[in-house]
Amino acid sequence: MNIIPDGTYYINLTIRDVADERNDSSERFGQLNPNFGIQQIPDGIFNGPYETTYEPSWEWGSIRARLNYPGENNPRLPEAFKGNYLHGKKRPGDYTASCVCERSEIILNILLKQDPQKVPKVPVWVRTFP
Predict the structure, then answer these.
(1) Among residues 22, 39, 38, 31, which one has the least CA distance to residue 58?
(2) Which residue of 4, 17, 50, 83 is 20 to 30 Å from 60, comparing CA positions?
(3) Is the pTM of this model over 0.70?
(4) How far apart are CA 101 and CA 116, in angstroms?
(5) How far apart are CA 27 and CA 128, in angstroms?
(6) Is 23 in a helix, a strand, or coil?
(7) Does residue 26 form part of some domain?
(8) For residue 120, how many C-alpha atoms fall within 13 Å in the half-sphere facing its CB?
(9) Cα distance between residue 28 and residue 50, in whole Å
């Protein structure tokens, strides 16, 4: 729920998977477990905690890519640098919490098509515009 701090992040294209119910977090409703690369999110209903259900693509779209920050495991690094994503979104007219939303998923699809052997990491510059 923070604004992403200015910085140079990177997307790790060597880590890829597809979210499914096994990656569904039982601790927080409607949240997926962390993924440190690029991840496809299928359409469909996932089972949440306490006999609830949710559709992750409503909030995340069909693809998300982690905005990793160098030294992210440093305990002194402020939390605002951790856990941010570039992702799509199906929910209309809504904000995204602590992430960059790319509703069209054009960039995300380009990233997904890259050969991770040739393009293992992609730098992402986050800057605040006045």
Answers:
(1) 31
(2) 50
(3) yes
(4) 23
(5) 32
(6) helix
(7) yes
(8) 1
(9) 11
Query: Do the domain assignments include residue 1?
Result: no
Structural contact between residues 111 and 11, judged by C-beta atoms closer than 8 angstroms: yes
**What phi-psi label fits residue 22: left (phi over 0), alpha (psi between -120 and 50 degrees) or beta?**
alpha
Q: Residue for token digits 């069909």?
A: 62
- CA 86, CA 66: separation in Å to the nearest integer? 6
Total of domains in the chain: 1
What was the pLDDT predicted at 74? 87
Residue 22 lies in a domain: yes
Tokens 């923070």, residue? 2
- What is the extent of the structural domain holding 113? 7-126
What is the rounded CA–CA span in Å between residue 52 and residue 80?
A: 29
Does residue 116 fall inside a structural domain?
yes
Does the structure show a pLDDT above 90 at 112? Answer: yes
Grade residue 24 by pLDDT with cuts at 50, 70 and 90. Answer: very low
